[in-house]
Specification:
The protein is of the alpha+beta class and about 190 residues long. It contains five helices and nine strands. The strands form three sheets. Strands 6-7-8-9 form a four-stranded antiparallel β-sheet, with helices on one face. It has a three-stranded mixed β-sheet with strand order 1-2-3, with no helix packed on it. Strand 4 (about 100) and strand 5 (about 105) form a beta hairpin. The protein is globular, with a radius of gyration of 21 Å.
Length: about 190
């Protein structure tokens, strides 16, 4: 389709690109913020989606469950999107299937957020790992190890530096090695 145009799934042509003469909004446009504005939009977090810095992977969760979730309750519990599935199975009282349509179902990665929603501690994740578009990261408690594609590992203490501005990898090489091993084991298991 050349000339910067593409088509929607219904075949209608769209104008694509971040150009001043293409205003976002109508159904025939596909305009994005682009990396610079996406990063700015995530302030104070670093970077944007498609990376594993906080600007790419951190998102708030707002829950409403009358009689269960206390209004105004805030938790800093480390969690992952996979915890939503585990929570739905927990709340519904359903068992996670081992097979579906004659296929084996991968084990569930998530852990139920029900205790957190009820204001109680839970047995959470020992570690969380990500591999996204060549970016990689591992988080253990408040420590996060992250690298851009073909970049070296960077280490951050998120309890003191949530915006990932002070790389502590050279001050803690043993922690970098330990967390790298956790990441490598996770990647092998995938």
């Amino acid at each position: 389709m050349g000339n910067g145009t593409r088509a929607r799934s219904d075949g209608k042509r769209t104008r694509v690109g971040n150009k001043p003469d293409i205003m976002p909004g109508p159904g025939d446009t596909f305009v994005t913020a682009g990396p610079a504005w996406a990063t700015l939009s995530n302030t104070p977090f670093r970077s944007h989606k498609q990376t594993n810095y906080e600007g790419g992977i951190s998102a708030p969760l707002i829950a409403w469950w009358p009689g269960v979730v206390k209004a105004g309750q805030i938790s800093a519990e480390l969690s992952h999107i996979t915890d939503i599935t585990a929570t739905v199975f927990d709340v519904s009282g359903q068992n996670y299937p081992e097979a579906f349509d004659n296929r084996t179902v991968a084990p569930m990665d998530g852990k139920s957020l029900c205790p957190v929603l009820k204001g109680k501690p839970r047995n959470g994740h020992e570690s969380l790992c990500w591999a996204t578009s060549g970016h990689k990261a591992v988080r253990i408690a408040n420590w996060k190890l992250v690298a851009a594609p073909k970049g070296k590992w960077q280490l951050y203490d998120l309890s003191k530096d949530r915006a990932e501005t002070r790389d502590l990898s050279s001050a803690h090489p043993e922690r970098v090695a330990e967390m790298n091993e956790v990441f490598e084991q996770w990647q092998k298991a995938r």
